Amino acid sequence: MQKIWMLSVATATLLLAQEMSAESIAEQLENEKTTTTAKGGFMPDISLIVDVGYTKERLDFDDHHLEIPSLVHGGGDAHDGHAHTKLAGNDGFSLNYAELTIGASVDNYFDLMSVFHLSEDDFEIEEAYATTTGLPYHLKAKIGKFKSDFGYLNAKHQHNYNFAEAPLVYLALLGDHGINEEGIQLQYILPTSIYMMAGVELLRGENEQSFGTEAFLEVDEVSQPSLWLGYLKTSFDIAEGTLLAGVSMATGESRIDHLEDMENPHAFAGDTTLYGIDLVYKKYFSANNAITWQSEYLYREMDGNQYKPDNSAIELNKKQSGFYSELIYQYDKNYRAGVRYSAITQNDVVVNDKEKEIPDDLFVVSTMLEYHFSEYSRLRLQYNHNSSLYNEEGIKNNKNEILLQFTYAIGAHGAHSF
Amino acid sequence: MRQLLLFLLLASSLFAKLNVTVVYPYIKEITNSIAQDRVKITALSKGNWDPHFVVPKPSLVAYLRDSDLLILNGASLEIGWLDPLIKSANNPTIQKNADGYLNLSEYIKLQDIPKSTNRSMGHVHAEGNPHFILDPHNVIKIAHIITLKLSQLDPGNKAYYQKNFANFKAHWQKKLKTYDKKMKKCKGMMVIQYHELFNYFLRRYGINSIDNIEPLAGVSPNPKHTLKLINTVKSNDVKLILQDVYHEHKTSQFISQKTGVKVVDMPHDVGAMRGTDSLDKFYDTLVGQVCR
Fold first, then answer.
1. Of the candidates B80, B158, B248, which has its C-beta nearest A21's C-beta?
2. Helices (H), A307-407
3. Up-side HSE of residue B165: CA atoms within 13 Å toward CB?
4. Residue A402 is part of which domain span?
5. 3-class state of residue A60 by DSSP
6. Does the beta-carbon distance from B3 to A334 stay under 8 Å?
7. CATH 3.40.50.1980 given to domain B185-290
8. Which among B107, B149, B111, B133 has a CA at the least distance from the CA of B279?
9. Is domain B2-176 in CATH 3.40.50.1980, yes or no?
10. What is the spatial distance between Cα A323 and Cα A318, in angstroms, rounded to a whole number?
11. Could you give the CA distance from residue A279 to residue A234 in angstroms, rounded to a whole number?
12. CATH 3.40.50.1980 domain span(s) along chain B
């Protein structure tokens, strides 16, 4: 017994001595540094991305009052005081957006990141959040307004898309902004030999296409936060390429108010659940020669009541799904090309237990060619065949469009993730 | 019983193997010389890859998650890919400025520090040229820094690390003598290179790199610049065109055909090409390719 005690004391003394020597080594390391190159005191990373373009579109017939049946209506016009790219009628030169980012470490506990999305007349705080840098147990928390890590594309910024706009299934189920709101996120890296990440988020629940919280008519508002999300992502190498796969789920209450619409005003109150599967495969032949295959499938179920302005209600149940799949080939430092197909695969709407006849032959095909002048400037030529638009009489109006898009970046913009 | 447990706990903290993740193979080789089997070392990239653009694969996050020490080259060489990996590893030990984050460039006198930086100059690094490992005279300093860092994090093996460093230093001083002697006869030679990758090596031995195949750092060659380069090569006594392994080879071959000047393949890291799979062989090849 005594022996063990003595050994323990000896070990403790040794550890203490080592602690002291570690300190002196740290000092020695500090002295070995060449003249410090701190540049002009505190300066956060600031970057600006500007995206300008030209669009030429042609419709089957001249009718700009279009909708994606039972998914997007009102032509994607202005709402909540900010304008969106309309479903049709975007000809000519345009300032698509500017994106200003400012980020830095706050202290040794938090990093701060903010992204401002600017259009010609609007200033939006797209993201403003702090992430923890020192949580134990491989945890990380994010607090503020941010793009959710639901799916793969949702967390990406527009300049980082492979095409000018989000795919049809995203626009239809999540709208122009995706899931992007105030709340909290917690992510955990599992202690497995292959990469596994699990995350949960609790958000306000204001997505205009799937959720929403505001009261209308005699329906109460939803108490916030109301949207729960969870996801699991994994990644491993196959055939000298890398696969990133994920499953996601989002569930919350919905208050979708279209009572101000000119035609067929209505509103929805109920519960919505969204499921997503994402698969990304990248194979690099060299640093600038690579192939990427990226696909996502989304399924949404909405259950509740639809209201008319006179407060009359009918039972409504929607089961809708869709996917996109894109293949991108990067030839070298300068050239990239790609194709994307996005379609709605299910558009079932049941009203008072009766199935409604809703078109489900909705798809968009896009192809693009990019020329990168450098890492910081890019020209993209894109062609879309959009077969998802119907007029009010229920007649399909195909849209073909050519987009020319210049994207410029200045300043210190952080590296992108996989 | 409790005392025994306490003792085991204290003792195990003495013998736990350090998990070291390094960015480039040369760092792995040097760390290996110092630590040998006392630590577990993983390199994030391979020697024949472009060090500026490593694919930020999420599978690398799994290594970083468990690392006690991350050793990087620094001077923004990893700026295009490493940060998101460190951030998503959820490991406070290796975050910037933590004890487990070792940026080697902070201990080296960097060259080519630009007087001003502007993107119209191409991809220049404000801190200076990050390819300092190309100078064999920087190796001992790097090994010394790594020895200190390992001793700081793993004081139980301090004596072992220092003994290995002493051996390594003696060996390397001998190597340097051979290199210096061999390279003397090439002093004043003129060469061109693709990217300012070999500046530290060339400057060390008084070799003049008079132009680059890429018109600006990180910008692909264009016909106008290539034609100008052919004239430069012809009107100067250029002896070699230095070609690295990860840029395209067509332009240098074309210049070679037009001028008759030989193209030589140059490794930029351990394992960049065949016969460079150790630190010794890497520098032997560098010296051998330039000065035969």
1. B158
2. none
3. 20
4. 47-95+130-411
5. coil
6. no
7. yes
8. B133
9. yes
10. 17
11. 10
12. 2-176, 185-290
Q: Is A309 on the interface with B (CB under 8 A)?
A: no
Closest CA relative to residue A269, chosen from A310, A209, A207, A219: A219
**Close Cβ partners of B130 (under 8 Å, ≥ 6 residues apart):** B73, B74, B75, B76, B77, B105, B110
A13 within a domain of the structure (yes/no): no
Pair A150, A248: CB distance under 8 Å: yes
Cβ(B16)–Cβ(A16) below 8 Å? no
CB proximity A286 to B under 8 Å: yes
- Phi and psi for A236 in degrees, rounded to 5? -155, 170
Whether A18 shows a pLDDT value over 70: the answer reads no
Check which CATH number belongs to the domain holding A326 and give it.
Answer: 2.40.160.10
Distances (CA, A) of B224 to A319, B213, B214, B231: 59, 11, 11, 11
By DSSP bridging, strand A195-203 and strand A227-238 are antiparallel
Spatial neighbors of A393 by CB under 8 A, at least 6 apart, are: none
Scanning every residue of chain A, which has its alpha carbon at the shortest distance from the alpha carbon of B109?
Answer: A34
The answer as to whether A236 is a domain residue is yes
The number of domains in chain A is: 1
What tokens appear for A346 in the block? 């299910």
**Rounded to the nearest 5°, which phi and psi values hold at B282?**
-60, -50
Q: ipTM of this predicted complex? A: 0.84
pLDDT tens digits, B41-56 = 999 999 999 999 898 9
Mean pLDDT of chain A: 90
Expressed in angstroms, the distance from the first to the final Cα of chain A is 56
Residues in chain B with CB shorter than 8 Å from the CB of A36 are 106
At A57-87, the pLDDT tens digits run 999 998 888 899 989 876 544 444 444 567 8
Beta carbons within 10 angstroms of residue B187's beta carbon: 11
The amino acid that residue A266 corresponds to is H
Q: Which of A59-73, A334-348, B110-124, B260-274 has the lowest mean pLDDT?
A: B110-124
CB A322 within 8 A of CB A344: yes
List A residues 163-202 in contact with B (Cβ-Cβ < 8 A).
187-189, 191-195, 197
Q: Which two tokens stand for residue B150?
A: 């390992």
Q: Is the peptide bond before B51 cis (omega within 30 degrees of 0)?
A: no
Up-side HSE of residue B259: CA atoms within 13 Å toward CB?
A: 27
Q: Which residues of B touch A157 (CB under 8 A)?
A: none
A36 located within any domain: no
Q: Is residue A10 part of a domain?
A: no
Contacts of A417 in chain B (CB under 8 A): 56, 84-85, 88
3-state secondary structure of A216: strand
